[in-house]
Design a protein that fits this description.
The chain has helices at residues 25-37, 65-70, 120-133, 195-203, 278-285, 289-295, 342-361, 372-385, 391-417, 457-462, 483-492, 496-499, 528-532, and strands at residues 13-21, 43-46, 61-62, 81-84, 87-93, 98-100, 116-118, 137-139, 144-149, 155-160, 163-165, 171-176, 180-188, 215-224, 234-240, 249-255, 260-268, 299-309, 320-321, 324-326, 476-478, 505-510, 513-518, 538-540. With 554 residues, the protein is α+β, with helices and mostly antiparallel strands. It has a domain at 13-70 and 122-210 and 313-386: 3-Layer(bba) Sandwich (FAD/NAD(P)-binding domain), CATH 3.50.50. Strands 1, 2, 8, 9, 10, 13, 19 and 20 form an 8-stranded mixed β-sheet that branches. The chain has a 7-stranded mixed β-sheet with strand order 6-5-15-16-17-14-18. It has a 3-stranded antiparallel β-sheet with strand order 3-7-4.
């Protein structure tokens, strides 16, 4: 069933002072900060992946300011952080050419002094150890499927998912009922488009008076490069090919330790062409001469995909609700042109934790943390996001070529004069509203993979180390099971098999008629279907705890 606000029913009830959903950088930073501020508080973190970091994926080049504030001695504490950035180059690609952009052209908002290359999965595992050393209770393989409500509909904790339920919803011999975790405050740090955050935002009207949140789909591979092609600390960002002028986004290549290359492409989900495949575009990206030359003689090690927020400051909802708050990418603090959000996730977790600790010390519980947006934005998040707020609207309105120029001009105006001649541009439409009918586009085709640089979805998903019991309820819910064939197929060509980077959706034929099939065991939990489905007919809910990818080094 869909996520709904609920009471505990007959479930076992356990109590804690603060429960945090999601062991990502925001959730773990909030947990650490709570124990730093008030060591006597009981703090519980639940995480749906089998191991900490198993569902985490990011580029990732990290601005260290968040970690500096949280754990000032992290460099001497053994934090698994790779090389400092030594060279940062922005490129514009055509189909055959690679044009490096002069450093003097790049607005200062897109540069980060002291940035380091990291595996976010490795970092959150380490943050989990720091949290546990402070007395935080962390429970992996535990999916939060609902919120626990009390008087007046206030949130009083979470409900965890049942284990051992078969495909039809019947208990298996291994059945274990979920529990209710009751808390004075509940913090939601599920990442972009989390199921609880999505429902709470709607239920409490947190997005009213804000622009719709926008998203990108980030697809990433880790490669082991030939030693003569590896340059630790070098990072490159790419605009242009393979994306056309109407499709915003860009690629990245980060040289980490151990001859590792973090290679990826972000495609903003505001694209209009229903025949576009972000996965296919990523394969094309690797065929560019500059990228193919870099990968020559290398070996692909892992693959993953995840939605990321791209709405910016205009799309940050109200953070506080009765009994808790949104933190990290559940709210959306991505610096879109710089492609950095980890430090802001940490900042938001810390600031919210400070407010929660103070509220509990005052004897409060289950109320709303008034003014939380101002508190969180005052950490430096607002000062960082405000000067780049118009970049994504420019891209969406004017395309990549004109949009990048206008966005760059706007950022320079902000850097030099602390104002924008354009004010604050609005987004207007959500991503799912932007697809054109298939009759109005020339369908795209993608070449067959060569197995050297380019690969199909099945071979890629294999590297995500998926673990998913087939005999459990399908976690991709269709409000109308007939709609994909009845409406989406004739109008849009049913885009789900194309926008999904993991081969979850398929339009097949049975008895001469098209049918829509779902392969939930392929799901990497990217949430793209929940975002981009033009009919908003698909709702992603957590499968059984421990299901999904088990990323390593992403």
């Amino acid at each position: 069933m869909d996520v709904t606000l609920a009471d505990a029913g007959n479930r076992e009830i356990l109590e804690t002072d603060v429960v945090i959903v999601g062991a990502g950088p925001a959730g773990l930073s909030a947990a650490i900060r709570l124990k730093q501020q008030a060591p006597h508080l009981s703090v519980t973190v639940v995480e749906k992946s089998a191991d900490l970091g198993g569902h985490i994926i990011s580029g990732a080049v990290m601005n260290p300011v968040g970690l500096d504030a949280l754990l000032p001695g992290w460099r001497d504490m053994g934090a698994p952080v790779g090389p400092a950035v030594t060279r940062d180059t922005f490129h514009f690609l055509t189909a055959a050419a690679d044009i490096p952009l002069p450093g003097l052209m790049i607005p200062p908002q897109m540069k980060t002094d002291g940035a380091v290359i990291i595996s976010l999965g490795d970092l959150v595992r380490w943050l989990g150890e720091q949290a546990q050393n402070l007395g935080v209770d962390i429970f992996p393989m535990t999916a939060a499927v609902d919120v626990l409500t009390g008087e007046g509909g206030r949130v009083e904790g979470i409900i965890t998912g049942d284990l051992g339920v078969d495909h039809a919803g019947n208990p298996k011999p291994t059945y274990a009922a979920g529990i209710a975790l009751k808390a004075k405050y509940t913090l939601i740090g599920e990442g972009a488009r989390g199921s609880l955050a999505k429902h709470l935002i709607t239920h409490f009207g947190l997005a009213e008076n804000h622009d719709p949140q926008l998203y990108g789909l980030g697809i990433k591979e880790v490669w082991e490069l030939a030693p003569d092609r590896h340059e630790p600390g070098r990072i490159d960002h790419y605009l242009g090919f393979p994306l056309d002028n109407a499709t915003s986004g860009g690629g990245f290549a980060y040289h980490a330790t151990g001859n590792r290359l973090y290679l990826g492409l972000v495609v903003h989900l505001s694209y209009e062409d229903p025949t576009l495949s972000p996965f296919g575009e990523f394969q094309r990206f690797k065929t560019h001469p500059s990228i193919a030359r870099l990968l020559h003689g290398g070996r692909r090690l892992s693959y993953g995909a995840r939605a990321l927020t791209s709405g910016g400051l205009q799309s940050v909802p109200d953070l506080a609700f009765p009994g808790g708050a949104l933190i990290g990418c559940a709210a959306g603090f991505m610096n879109v042109p710089a492609l950095k959000a980890i430090h802001n996730a940490i900042r938001s977790g810390m600031a919210t934790a400070d407010r929660v600790a103070a509220a509990i010390e005052e004897g409060r519980a289950h109320d709303s943390l008034e003014g939380l947006n101002a508190t969180v934005l005052a950490t430096g998040i607002g000062a960082e996001l405000r000067p780049v707020r118009n970049v994504k609207p420019f891209w969406t309105r004017f395309g990549t070529y004109a949009g990048v120029l206008l966005g760059g001009f706007d950022m320079w105006c902000e850097a030099l004069f602390r104002l924008s001649p354009f004010g604050t541009l609005r987004h207007g439409h959500a991503d799912f509203e932007r697809l054109k009918p298939i009759s109005s586009v020339t369908p795209r085709t993608y070449p067959r993979p060569d197995g050297q640089l380019t690969f199909d979805r099945a071979a890629s998903v294999y590297l995500a180390n998926l673990s998913h019991d087939e005999d459990q309820p399908i976690h991709l819910k269709l409000a109308d099971p007939d709609l994909p064939i009845r409406k989406n197929l004739p109008l849009y060509g049913e885009p789900a098999p194309l926008y999904c980077p993991a081969g979850v959706y398929e339009v097949a034929e049975e008895s001469g008629a098209p049918v829509f099939r779902i392969h939930p065991a392929n799901c990497v939990h990217c949430k793209t279907c929940d975002i981009k489905d033009p009919a908003q007919n698909i709702t992603w809910v957590p499968p059984e705890g421990g299901s999904g990818p088990n990323y390593s080094g992403l």
